[in-house]
Every structure is written in structure tokens, then in C-alpha cells.
Write a structure and sequence with these properties.
Its main location: cytoplasm. The protein is α/β, with parallel strands linked by helices. The protein is built from 18 helices and 25 strands.
């Protein structure tokens, strides 16, 4: 959510900053801005409501020159989307600042600053920080000292970058709860909220830790921890693909990422499964010792990751024989809970920076969990750094706001973890392990077969052109798949969609069913199929319009009021992952028909780094 890019260089940096913002457009935003100190030490600022291209056009018409600058894409929290509320914010004629996060005590600080004579030009919490830095500079000897004094007064989450036009050789950055990374160049250095923004200028990165404040010049980087002590942070070489932000042959990032899933799943499994078994040590050097002791699993996640956890609960209990609870992170962190003996906490997050999930992890570490593990897609992220075990999904950069390949790679990682746990504890024997591994090895090919249904599903999507509501049904582990399918449809097409365990129909949702309500059913052959068929008949009897996704052995035939989409038969173990694909394709094609912004749906952001 929001994006930051900064630079200290000898060359003009406007184009670098704007290109960095383009690479962060996937996060979701409503306005963009840039500030640069020119060769006369004059602060120049341009802000625009709308897309980065609007900002780029404005900069083209009024060129900005200078080697020190900051830029930002804003997703509105405090104050409406407007040019006045867009970043960077300025105090006086010298201090410019960008900020990700939320300052919880901004109102009290605003009142204090008003008493000191400051005038506010925006409704944002961010402007408070700019004025505080300006105030502290009246007594501080350096910008670094002023920022260190300022952050001590802030309560909340922030990743902030500050510059002073009177001292253009340096930028100061501070991180608390909102990620920042420093990119190292040759005779120049950069700052961003995501390394993806800087891959066109460097591949060497330093990740700031919680509470860090850093001073960045062209040739030096000085980092100080929350106690003001100088510290060293490791420099990492990025292996992220440089062209990960390009759509290539695809119309949208979401479409590209749906079709990348076979290769993404191969990457997730690479080096972690052999011909007939899961390699437990590949999960982490301490995995064997930890898994031996696990008596309970607690999964914490948000959104799509929460739905992945809900599928995994069925696997942990039915395959590994270990009890499992799944909870939304924003609920878990604000209730009193009982920690089970020898409980392993598992956090799920694409970005590794989801604020509620990160806060839940930190809380759980105080509450006596045996160990904490994260399943994540971003190396170096906060969840990865703060967990005992990190199981990387290796999905590659996911740009579209609506998660696709992150979801399926999380499911594959979870299934491998379930297998490793059951293997360690003796609940999964060699025959069962071999069956699971074989199914996993076949999965990329099976996903290719599911993707081959793109054209039929595109045609099917025409039926949804005038629909405003939809109902998804599933049973067992396919209930959370139905929940994920409804989330995808509502996220990108803005159709109101709900999902229910099919057995719950008669307990209320059946009242919604009529001839205008499409009902989408995930119905592969399994032990619950006959029960599900009874639920389907309940819908048919009320005149509902049914779309049933089933395999060739399920025994469905097209008839009035019911369309059957016959899918290939796949192993029951991997079927939840397989049936995710047609649900993603359906949501994508309905959104195209509805004419919505597929990659950046309204009101949403990719990485939710605030509560």
C-alpha cells in the first residue's frame, strides 16, 4: 500500500524516480508526487491526482533537474484523494517528506504544532511529521538528529524519507512497521518501499530493521537502531527477475500471473521433493526438531492467505492427524486467547509485510508458542526475518492486487509442510507420502489442463454481464475454495458475491436463490459428492441458475437451469488447488465484461501495511 522511491546521485533522478513509481503501481494508489532539489538548492515539487502517467506528463511539461529527490504513490487514509493530500509534503520551503503508514497520535501532534504557529495545507497525518522535523531542526545540528528526535514522538506505523534543500547531499530514512530498503549503486544510492522499484538501477539491497533510522548520501550509508546506536545491516544481492513487472504478451498482470502458475508451482517444489518423498530439511535447518514436537497448529493470515489456511486445516487434521485452528490476524491480535501446548504458529502472507499478520506474530511470540513459521513470497520481508522458520513460496513478483499464483503456491507449500509433519510424527507412512508427492509432481501439468479451459470460461462469463450478485458453494476442503472464488469475483468485477458451505443453504442462504442469482458450485468426485448433489437439487427446486464445475466421473448432465463445466479428473489430494484455476479465470473474464480495473481494483491495495 503506497509506494516510496528516493535517490541521492550526481545525475538527474526524475526519470529514475518516476520509473520506480511505475514499478510500484501494483500496490494500489490514488495520487502521485515527486520532489527534487535542483542545482540552486531550490525545492521543486509536482503532484497529481490519478495515475503515475499523469505525474509523468506534468514533469515532461515542466522538467525537473537535480540529483536528490523523493517520490510517492498515495493510497488515501487520512484525507480524501486529492492533489493537496498527495505526497511529498513540505514544511517551510526546505523540508520535503514522504511516508507510508499511519501516525495514530497525529491529531494531538497537529494541535501542538498549530500552537507553535505551523499552518497545515492538507488533511493528512503525514504533514505532521514534516512540521515536526522542521521544528526539531531548530535545535538539532543535523537532519539525522532531527529525524531521530521526531520519530520518538510518533506512535503508529511509518516508513518515511526526508530531505532538506539546504543540505541536498543526504536523505534520512526511518522505518517502524512499514518496510524500507536501501539500494546501493556506484557513487549513488537509492531508497524504496520495495526492491522491485529499483531493479533497473541496482541489484544490491540493504533491508532496514524495525526502528532503524539511516542517513544516506551518494557514497555512504549510516544506520542507527531505535536506541540511536550505530549498527551494520547486511547487503543482499537480489535474484528477482528484472522483467517481472512487464506484462509481456498478456493484457493484464492478473492474466499473466494466472498463466504463470505451472512454472510458479514448479519453483515452489524445486529442491523440496524427491522422487518419492518430501525433504523435511528443505523447510529449514531446525524443521525436523520443531516438527517432532508439534501438537497443534495455529494459522494466522488475512484475505486470500486466510483462505489458503482454511484449506490447510483439512489437510493438517485429515492427513497429518494434528489439530489446527485458523484465524484472521486482525481478530487474533485483539482477543484474549489460550496458547495450546507445543503449538506451532504459522503466518501466511504474500508480501511478508501485512501489518495485522506481523503484529499477530509479535504478540504470539510473547504468549509462549513453541515456534513461529512463515510461508511467504518475499525474501527479506519482516515476517521472514522475525520467524523461526521461513518457507519461501518462490512465486515470483505478483503485481496484480487480486492474488492468484501466491494463493496456489501457498497451498503447495502447505501441503508439503503437512506431509513433512505427518512423516515426522508417523501419521503419514511411506506409501501415503509417495502418493502425495506423485500428485504434487503431476500438478503443474494438471494446471496446464485447467488453463486450457480459458476460452470456454470466457464464453461462460457472458452470462454474468448483467448480474449484480453471485453465490458460491462447496463442501469440505472445497468450501474455502468457494470462499476464495467469491473473493476474486467481488475484488475485480465488483459483483456482490458470497460463499457458503453447501450444507448451510437451508439455514438461511436459500432465501437468496431465484432465477437472477447465479450459483457456482465446486463439485469434484469425493465422499461428499452425493451430499452436494442434494444441495444442488435444493437450488434447482427454487429456480436458481446453476454452474457446476465437476469432473467426468461426477455424473452430472446439462439440463434446464444447470450448466456443467466438465473438468479432468485429478487426484483428490491436489483437487482444491486444481479447482482454484477455473474460479480465477471466471473472475477475470467477468471483470473484463464489466469493464473494471482488473489489476488495480478500486479501494484496494496489494500490500496492506496498515491496520
Amino acid at each position: 500500500m503506497c509506494g516510496i522511491v528516493g535517490a541521492v546521485a550526481q545525475r538527474d533522478v526524475a526519470e529514475i524516480l518516476i520509473e520506480g513509481l511505475r514499478r510500484l503501481e501494483y500496490r494500489g494508489y490514488d495520487s502521485a508526487g515527486i520532489a527534487i532539489v535542483d542545482t540552486d538548492n531550490v525545492l521543486q515539487r509536482v503532484r497529481r491526482l490519478g495515475k503515475v502517467q499523469e505525474l509523468a506528463n506534468a514533469v515532461d511539461s515542466t522538467p525537473l533537474s537535480g540529483g536528490t529527490g523523493i517520490a510517492h504513490t498515495r493510497w488515501a487514509t487520512h484525507g480524501e484523494p486529492s492533489e493537496a493530500n498527495a505526497h511529498p509534503h513540505i514544511s517551510g520551503q526546505h523540508i520535503a517528506l514522504v511516508h507510508n503508514g499511519i501516525i495514530e497520535n497525529h491529531q494531538a501532534l497537529r494541535e501542538l504544532l498549530l500552537e507553535r504557529g505551523y499552518v497545515f495545507s492538507s488533511q493528512t497525518d503525514t504533514e505532521v511529521i514534516a512540521h515536526l522535523v522542521d521544528w526539531e531542526l531548530r535545535s538539532a545540528e543535523t537532519l539525522l538528529e532531527a529525524v531521530q528526535k521526531t520519530v520518538l514522538q510518533l506512535r503508529g506505523a511509518y516508513g518515511t524519507v526526508v530531505m532538506d534543500s539546504r543540505d541536498p547531499e543526504r536523505i534520512v530514512v526511518a522505518r517502524s512497521g512499514s518496510p524500507l530498503v536501501i539500494g546501493l549503486g556506484v557513487g549513488e544510492n537509492f531508497i524504496a518501499s520495495d526492491q522491485l522499484a529499483l531493479l533497473n538501477v541496482t541489484r544490491r539491497f540493504m533491508f532496514l530493521e524495525e526502528g532503524d533510522v539511516a542517513e544516506v548520501t551518494r557514497r555512504t550509508i549510516s544506520v542507527f537502531d531505535g536506541n540511536g546506536q550505530a549498527v551494520e545491516r547486511v547487503v543482499n544481492e537480489s535474484t528477482v527477475e528484472h522483467d517481472a513487472a512487464d506484462k509481456g504478451q498478456y493484457r493484464h498482470y492478473m492474466q499473466k500471473e494466472i498463466f504463470e502458475q505451472p512454472s510458479a508451482l514448479i519453483n515452489t517444489m524445486e529442491g523440496r521433493i524427491s522422487n518419492d518423498h518430501v525433504i523435511v530439511e528443505s523447510i529449514g535447518s531446525d524443521a525436523t526438531a520443531i516438527l517432532d514436537k508439534v501438537e497443534h497448529i495455529q494459522i494466522i493470515a488475512c484475505g486470500t492467505s486466510y483462505n489458503a489456511g482454511m484449506v490447510a486445516r483439512y489437510w493438517f487434521e485429515s492427513l497429518a492427524g494434528v489439530s489446527c485452528d485458523v484465524e484472521i490476524a486482525s481478530e487474533f491480535r485483539y482477543r484474549k486467547f489460550v496458547t495450546r501446548p507445543n503449538s506451532l504458529l504459522i503466518t501466511l502472507s504474500q508480501s511478508g509485510e501485512t501489518a495485522d499478520t506481523l503484529a499477530a506474530l509479535r504478540l504470539a511470540k510473547q504468549k509462549g508458542y513453541m515456534a513461529a513459521m512463515t510461508i511467504c513470497n518475499v525474501a527479506g520481508s519482516s515476517l521472514v526475518r522475525e520467524s523461526d522458520l521461513a518457507f519461501m513460496t518462490r512465486a515470483g513478483a505478483e503485481i496484480g492486487v487480486a492474488s492468484t499464483k501466491a494463493f496456489t503456491t501457498q497451498l503447495v507449500a502447505l501441503l508439503m509442510l503437512v506431509t513433512a509433519l505427518g512423516k515426522q510424527q508417523g501419521s503419514i507412512d511411506h506409501v501415503k507420502e509417495q502418493q502425495i508427492v506423485t500428485a504434487l509432481q503431476q500438478l503443474p501439468t494438471q494446471i496446464e489442463k485447467a488453463l486450457a479451459f480459458d476460452k470456454p470460461i470466457e464464453a461462460l462469463a457472458e452470462d454474468f454481464a448483467d448480474k449484480q450478485h453471485a453465490l458460491f458453494l462447496g463442501r469440505g476442503e472445497f468450501y474455502p475454495i468457494a470462499v476464495e472464488a467469491s473473493l476474486k469475483l467481488k475484488e475485480i468485477s465488483y459483483i456482490h458475491a458470497e460463499a457458503y458451505a453447501a450444507g448451510e443453504l437451508k439455514h438461511g442462504p436459500l432465501a437468496l436463490v431465484d432465477a437472477e442469482m447465479p450459483v457456482i458450485v465446486v463439485a469434484p468426485t469425493n465422499d461428499l459428492l452425493e451430499k452436494l448433489k442434494s444441495n444442488i437439487e435444493e437450488v434447482r427446486a427454487r429456480g436458481g441458475l446453476l454452474y457446476v464445475f465437476a469432473d467426468s466421473e461426477a455424473g452430472f448432465d446439462d439440463c434446464e437451469g444447470m450448466k456443467i463445466i466438465t473438468m479432468p479428473k485429478v487426484d483428490e489430494i491436489i483437487a482444491p488447488i486444481f479447482y482454484t484455476i477455473p474460479m480465477q479465470l471466471l473472475a477475470y473474464h467477468v471483470a473484463l465484461i464489466k469493464g473494471t480495473d482488473v489489476d488495480q481494483p478500486r479501494n484496494l491495495a496489494k500490500a496492506v501495511t496498515v491496520e
